[in-house]
Amino acid sequence: MSKGTKVPGYMQGKGSRNPRGIIGDREIRYKCSLQNTILDVLRGRPGWQEVPGQNNVQQNVQTNAKQQGTTPQSSKSGQQTSGQPSSNTGKAGDGDWDFYWCDREWLAQNYDTMFLYEHQKILHFRNHYELTRKNLMVKNLKRLKKQTEREQGKAEGLSFEFFPTTYELPSEYHIFVEEFKKNPGIIWIMKPAARAQGRGIFLFRRLKDITDWKKGEYQPLSDPNREVPETYVVQRYIENPYLIGGRKFDVRVYVLVVSYNPLKVWLYRSGFARFSNTRFSLDSIEDTYVHLTNVAVQKNAPDYDPDKGCKWSTQQLRKYLAAKHGVEAVKKAFKGIDNIIIKSLQSVQKIIINDKHCFEMYGYDVLFDSDLKPWLIEINASPSLTASGKEDYDLKFGLLNDLLNVLDLENRLTGKEKRIGGWDLLWEDGPILADDGNMECTPNGTTASIPNSFLGCHNDRKRQLRELYTAAQSIKKS
Q1: 73 and 81 in contact (C-beta within 8 Å)?
Q2: Residue 262 backbone dihedrals phi, psi, to 5 degrees
Q3: Pick from 81, 100, 89: which is nearest to 30 by CA?
Q4: What is the pLDDT of residues 358-406, one digit of tens each?
């Protein structure tokens, strides 16, 4: 890292890197709106240089307009202001960048008035929320399920049975009440549609438990000036989660989408299982430390151990499950995760505004029940990149470094790779099959073609990258 750059504790001994080394004919210029692991990765990447100046595009627009003697106008039609690109004009120190790891808020404010050049890459698709808002995710999944049943039959529709019965409130409140009365005594969970980190979530058994919550906020809007109530989803709670050591957990899975048309999806081998800090019980549904596995919730538990962090790697989890249930049962369970990923992405494939400049790294949260059936809990557009410990930092540092390898702004690869570091190509306008030499998680002697999916398998990313770049260089020379 450059002199004067603050080096985090986990990066001690790595300061000898030269982040300003040249790759090809010039450096890769980047901007980043976050102050966590991704910034460390970008600053530590050879041949990449941070663009100085403000990240706020509107300030850039105002600066350009002032220099030209014009007044910038807001545009709802998506047209450029003052006859110029509203941001990222390509001028040095202003918009002269190749890669921008922006936040969702910035994109929402600026995407419609941005001009992007051929070489530029930016995080997030314009309407990513179609998959990552809880209510829209379920709405899109239900629609694709109905379409599949209509075109391919009810049996094929069973492949969508991976998300709990869900209703949106307040719009579907009366439909929910009818369903509630059909199944007395079961537990339901309430979630704000657009919040994260476990905020606003609670469980209930009785309809009167949400009566006070509903009063006032969810009555008809007689006052036209009254603020629209926050959207919630209510889901049937999974009462039989798979337990390890008596504790509930879910699995964070990382998925990279580089295109929706055609759909091209990468699955990262490593992730982690997040455990609750308290033994599972249905007797105390009000105890969030029992039922919510979010780190943001668990870290506030009285006996939380920050060094352990209530996490297992997916490699640890897969080995544990295989030892207890056998390799084939675990293969079936993890194949179910692949199905969740592809079906959910297909549900928004025709809705997401596809842009070759955009990419998305999703954080999928998946829960296993006692039968090892995977259930989709939610999908995050901005999974946390702040590390909770050294192992977590190493995972996320490798994850993000390999993401940049997949995007290949340096043009060092052939474009035909099925594996790049820890990322395996899962789907490219159809399922991808594994090569014969890439069978780490299969029983000895297996020769049949299998999906190119290795979640929880050995992640020898550094060795693989060395061999990959050597082979790609040889191909390009020839």
Answers
A1: yes
A2: -75, 160
A3: 100
A4: 999 999 999 999 999 999 999 999 999 999 889 999 999 999 999 999 9
Phi, psi of 46 (to 5 degrees): -60, 135
Q: Which amino acid is at 91?
A: K
**Nearest residue to 420 via CA among 465, 362, 363, 470:** 465
Structure tokens at 276: 């609750």
What length does the chain have?
Answer: 478
- Note whether 252 and 296 are within 8 A (CB): no
What pTM does this model have? 0.83
Cα 373 to Cα 224: distance, rounded to the nearest angstrom:
46
328/244 Cα distance (integer angstroms): 20
Cβ neighbours for 467, distance < 8 A, ≥ 6 positions apart: none
